[in-house]
Request: fold
Amino acid sequence: MSNKLIDLVGITKSFDGELVLDDLNLYIRENEFLTLLGPSGCGKTTTLRILGGFENPDKGSVIFNGENITQLPPNKRQLNTVFQKYALFTHMTIAENIAFGLKIKKKSKAYIDDKIKYALKLVNLQGYENRMPDSLSGGQQQRIAIARAIVNEPKVLLLDEPLGALDLKLRQDMQYELIRLKNELGITFIYVTHDQEEALTMSDTIVVMNQGYIQQIGTPEDIYNEPQNAFVADFIGDSNIINGTMLEDRLVEILGAKFPCVDEGFGRNKPVDVVIRPEDIDLLKPEEGTIQGVVTHLIFKGVHYEMEVMANGYEWLVHSTDLFPVGTQVGLHVDPFDIQIMNKPESEDEEAVSIDE
Reply:
């Protein structure tokens, strides 16, 4: 990855005495697609607004390209924001909407016309110059909002849930569009969403936030396969999160049965949280499994079957392309590599940070 472009240092922010960001530290590299992901109220939009200059932090600084821009107004920053409500000017044509920022910068007419054509081509809406915003679909309006931001040649594009109002198929199309745009333009994207799938699909780096804290930073693969706490595991995809006891290195007891695993360094007979993804559980003949159970629920999901299996007093969530009808006796097997072990939180307080929604 290339060099550091933005550094958020010790950012703290409260609204009406309610702490929204607590000493947040985060750096963003050039040309990175970084996603802030978390439940509503976790502080992700506030972080974006502080970056864009729409909010001032109570404490901390925003460093951009080595320069402190904490007090700079939005129009003086090399950042452009695309909001969920596209905020197009309804009384202006598409061309006028796109040209708005360039006119303020007193660019020549030839330059502006050139840029409009280029931006519309980039978002696949050539020939839309003279249309009015209300004659466009939601997806088209969103692409115009992005085009309007792109023509200003920002170093960074801030996107606040920009696909939130679109239907599923359109959202998926736009996800690919955004990845393509980022690769073509070579600018840094900072993206806010509460949609896990969107984050996993698009990002180079995901920052999982909850209650004003960063819970984990990593690639989509890291976040999904190696969650650092129960909150992250639960928030990113479905998980079985079970109380376990680490008997010794590479051996964990779950619900009275011993499972080999690959984790080390937790000590002996230590209580731990065990995370097992539903797709990592193999259903076998009862005698071939580590523990035995019975299928209690079954839903067909298109790509796979989603089943609940009652085994050793716990309802396991299992995803499989093989069908096991309700009532089938099964054995459960999990490869050692697919068992994630996590320390239990030290205190109630820490638990609130890691698990509360």
User: Anything to note?
Assistant: Residues 7 and 81 are 18 Å apart (CA to CA). The chain has two domains: 4-225, 239-355. The two ends are 32 Å apart (CA to CA). The first strand starts at residue 4 and ends at 15.
